[in-house]
C-alpha cells in the first residue's frame, strides 16, 4: 500500500493571487485546505510524521485530546482510520458521556471513523499533561502512541515546516492563524532569513505550547493579537460578512475559527499600510471546514447571518 501521506502532494497546488493593495502590496494564499477533504490543512502536516513514527514503532493505538468541536480530533480520527490505527479521543466535557444527543457533528464524525471516546470533566482535562493522568489512561487503554492536544510535538513541527517550499521564498511575509502554535513553529523554522512570519492568534490569550517555545528564539516572527473577535470560536456579523464577501469574490471558503480571522487581519493590516511598498504576503489556508455546519446552526439560533458555502457551477 502506498503511504497515505506520500500519496498526497502540495506540489500541484499553486499559490493563488488574491489582491493588490495600495503601494503594490500583494496578498496571495497557499491552499493547504485542498490537500485532503478530511485530513485537511495543517492537521495533515501535524499527523504525517507522528502516524509514521507510531506505525514504525509498532503502536496499534493513537490517543489524543480535544474539545467536542476540535479539527484535530476529526483529522486524527480520519487519518487514524486510513492508517489503520485504533484511535482514542479524550474529550473535554463529561456531560457528553451520558447524553449522545448532545454530541457535536465533529464527535459523530470521529465516531464514524472508529474513534472511541473518554469524556472527562474540565478540571480533569486540565491535567492532560500530568504523569498521573497519563498513567491512569495507560492502565485503562494499554499501550498507545500519545499525541498531545492540538497534535503538537517535534514531529508535528517538522511536518508543518514542509508547508513552505522553495518557490515561496519570493514572499516577504508568511501569515498564519495560531492556536497551539505548532503550525507557526514549523513556519518559523523553515522561513528564510529574509522572511517574516506573522501569527494571528485565534485565542484571546495567545501562548505557545511545549516545543514551540524552543523555536521562538528565532526573531523572524510577530503576533497580532487584535483579530481574535472576542476569543476562541467567537464570531460576529462583521466577520461573517467578510468571510462571505471573500468566498464570493475568490471562490475560497474560510473557516470561522481560524482562517476567517486571519484573512480579515491581513486585509485590515494591508489597508492600514502596515506592509512596506511592494511587499508580497502569503497567507496560509490551514483548512478546517468541518465545524462550519455546526457554527451555522449556532448563528441561525442567534439570528446572525450564516456562512455561505461555495456554489459549484
Ligand atoms: C488547528 C488549526 C489551526 C491552529 O494550528 P496550531 O498549530 O494549533 O496553531 C489553524 N487553522 C486551522 C484551520 C486549524 O484547524
TrEMBL record:
Locate the Tryptophan synthase beta chain-like PALP domain: which residues? 23-287
Question: Which organism is this entry from?
Answer: Christiangramia antarctica
Key words, A-Z? Pyridoxal phosphate
Among Pfam families, the record links this protein to: PALP (PF00291)
Q: Which SUPFAM superfamilies does the entry mention?
A: Tryptophan synthase beta subunit-like PLP-dependent enzymes
Which N-terminal residues, if any, form the signal peptide? none
Q: Which residues cross the membrane?
A: none
Cofactor(s) this protein cannot do without: pyridoxal 5'-phosphate
Stated name of the protein: 1-aminocyclopropane-1-carboxylate deaminase/D-cysteine desulfhydrase
Mitochondrion as a keyword of this entry, yes or no, is: no
Q: Which family does it belong to?
A: Belongs to the ACC deaminase/D-cysteine desulfhydrase family.
Amino acid at each position: 500500500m502506498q503511504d497515505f501521506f506520500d500519496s498526497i502532494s502540495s506540489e500541484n497546488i499553486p499559490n493563488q493571487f488574491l489582491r493588490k493593495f495600495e503601494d503594490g502590496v500583494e496578498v496571495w494564499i497557499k491552499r493547504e485546505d485542498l490537500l485532503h477533504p478530511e485530513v485537511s490543512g495543517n492537521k495533515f502536516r501535524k499527523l504525517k510524521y507522528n502516524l509514521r513514527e507510531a506505525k514504525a514503532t509498532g503502536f496499534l493505538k493513537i490517543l489524543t485530546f480535544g474539545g467536542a468541536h476540535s479539527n484535530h480530533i476529526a483529522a486524527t480520527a480520519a487519518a487514524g482510520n486510513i492508517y489503520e490505527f485504533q484511535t482514542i479521543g479524550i474529550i473535554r466535557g463529561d456531560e457528553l458521556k451520558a447524553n449522545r444527543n448532545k454530541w457535536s457533528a465533529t464527535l459523530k464524525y470521529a465516531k464514524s471513523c472508529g474513534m472511541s471516546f473518554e469524556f472527562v470533566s474540565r478540571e480533569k482535562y486540565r491535567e492532560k499533561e500530568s504523569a498521573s493522568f497519563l498513567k491512569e489512561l495507560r492502565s485503562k487503554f494499554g499501550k498507545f502512541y500519545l499525541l498531545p492536544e492540538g497534535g503538537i510535538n517535534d514531529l508535528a513541527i517538522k511536518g508543518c515546516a514542509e508547508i513552505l517550499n522553495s518557490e515561496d521564498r519570493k514572499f516577504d511575509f508568511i501569515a498564519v492563524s495560531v492556536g497551539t502554535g505548532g503550525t507557526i513553529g514549523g513556519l518559523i523554522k523553515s522561513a528564510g532569513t529574509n522572511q517574516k512570519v506573522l501569527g494571528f492568534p485565534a485565542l484571546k490569550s495567545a501562548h505557545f505550547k511545549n516545543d514551540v517555545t524552543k523555536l521562538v528564539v528565532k526573531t523572524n516572527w510577530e503576533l497580532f493579537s487584535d483579530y481574535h473577535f472576542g476569543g476562541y470560536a467567537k464570531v460576529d456579523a462583521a466577520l461573517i460578512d467578510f468571510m462571505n464577501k471573500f468566498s464570493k469574490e475568490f471562490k475560497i471558503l474560510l473557516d470561522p475559527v481560524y482562517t476567517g480571522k486571519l484573512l480579515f487581519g491581513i486585509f485590515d493590516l494591508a489597508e492600514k499600510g502596515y506592509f512596506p511598498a511592494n511587499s508580497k504576503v502569503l497567507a496560509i489556508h490551514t483548512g478546517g471546514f468541518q465545524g462550519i455546519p455546526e457554527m451555522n446552526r449556532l448563528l441561525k439560533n442567534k439570528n446572525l447571518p450564516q456562512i455561505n458555502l461555495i456554489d459549484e457551477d
